[in-house]
Amino acid sequence: MKPKHANLTATFHVLCFCLCLDKVKREIREAKYASGKMSGEEEDEEHNLDDLSERTLMSKSSDRYQVSGWDNDDDGIEQENQPHDSPAKEILWACEHGEMTVVQKLLERDITLLEVTDNDGYTPLHRACYNGHSELVKFLLLNGAKHDKETVDKWQPLHSASRWNQLDCAALLISHGADINAKSKGGITALHLAAGHVEAKNLLEMLLTNLELKTDLKDESGDTSYDIARRCGPNEKLFEAVEPCFL
């Protein structure tokens, strides 16, 4: 199955908003444990935050905020249920699942399979990247896979690797010439995506120490990666360590 990226800029704002609510709730609970009790006002505040977070995530409009989901169109279902119907479907399936031997055999017969795409424009390289199959990513790149191929939403493989916190894949792409500052339709860069991932400390360190990186790029909502990191969790300090201007 393949990720669907719908209205990604809005996604960041909703996700980061909910993460901030969780942070506030944790602070309230910590205060309770420190004092041994929670005031009535604090209990009301925590309940209100729970309600707000739930309404945000469960609202009718939440579908358009989805960071990743699974395509449910007929073609997508057919592709997943019958991945071996054609060499094109099979290489997409094999790259998603890290089946190196299958990929090697397919490319020996037809090297142009490197350029096939699914309905959303994902190539074999995109699929290998978002699932973290670094050895397969290396093999595809060495055999001519294009690191700058874009999906319908203008996601390059580096976007896929960064969204799913695949450090090794991202490093391989950059070492083969991927544009670290490439923007998607919503103006989102690899750094924006990594900044929104609370567990992407190592990936952020790798990106932030790259001399080609532009840290001041904004998405279509006017947010820099630092803005997103400040809302989403503990990684804003990484920006401050690398760029004194963030202090």
From TrEMBL:
Keyword Zinc assigned: no
Superkingdom per UniProt: Eukaryota
Protein name: ANK_REP_REGION domain-containing protein
Pfam family of the protein (one): Ank_2
Keywords for this protein: ANK repeat, Repeat, Signal
InterPro entries recorded: Ankyrin_rpt, Ankyrin_rpt-contain_sf, Multifunctional_regulatory
SUPFAM superfamilies: Ankyrin repeat
Region (Disordered): 33-52, 61-84
Signal peptide: 1-26
